[in-house]
Write a structure and sequence with these properties.
Layout (H helix, E strand, L loop, with lengths): L16 H5 L7 H7 L4 H23 L2 H17 L11 H19 L5 H5 L9 H8 L5 H8 L7 H12 L4 H8 L3 H21 L10
């Protein structure tokens, strides 16, 4: 009897399963969506392909890293839950995905919060955005509308949020310095900035100011 090598049948010798999964999936977005009905790994490939771009899409429109992360998660959860409704009849897969994203963004601007309906249906726990992810998403945000609004003396924000935004956005202080200046914890400083950015994005949206173009 031939000794077992521990490799899966049909897998070329020397190729690790993880390395094989990391190979670029050359199927189109539409093909991945169709395949994901029976193969969840196909949806994982779609996620890896578009997650960063979708995160940027939301970050530049909400101005809030926390909202952007939540909207990205909810969009993919909703897309996964409704993937059986996708029909490859001249509809590009990524266009369908961004249709879901725009629907989520519209709900956010109407209600001022991010729904978690799809994530709850799928049993996905809601988790806070880790500090390192928050900082990375911040780099995707265009803060120019925030700076202009703060310089114009926008007063609708509560004092704590306005002060946190002024320190972090206008003066460029990191969260440790913001916390020290406001006599609060770094977590609280980050929350004030996040809530201020979210409120400011909603206020600017109500004024009809476009925070990003479709090309962004």
């Amino acid at each position: 009897m031939q000794a077992s090598t521990g490799q899966e049948p049909g897998r070329p010798a020397g190729r690790h399963p993880a390395a094989e999964r990391r190979r670029v999936d050359e199927r189109t977005d539409a093909q991945l969506l169709l395949a994901s009905r029976t193969d969840p790994q196909a949806f994982t490939a779609l996620y890896r392909r578009h997650a960063e771009a979708l995160l940027r899409f939301f970050a530049r429109r909400t101005l809030d890293p926390e909202a952007a992360a939540e909207l990205t998660a909810e969009t993919f959860a909703q897309a996964f839950a409704s993937r059986a409704t996708f029909r490859d009849q001249g509809v590009d897969g990524v266009a369908w995905l961004y249709g879901v994203a725009r629907h989520q963004l519209g709900r956010f601007f109407r209600s001022g919060r991010v729904d978690a309906d799809a994530r709850r249906r799928l049993g996905m726990p809601e988790r806070p955005v880790p500090s390192e992810d928050f900082d990375r998403i911040e780099e995707l945000v265009d803060f120019e509308p925030v700076r202009e609004a703060l310089k114009a003396g926008l007063s609708e924000l509560p004092g704590g949020q306005r002060d946190a935004l002024r320190l972090h956005i206008l003066e460029g202080r990191d969260y440790r310095e913001v916390a020290r200046a406001l006599s609060c914890t770094e977590i609280n400083a980050r929350q004030r900035v996040s809530r201020g950015l979210r409120a400011l994005a909603l206020a600017l949206q109500e004024r009809g100011l476009a925070l990003a173009t479709e090309a962004d």
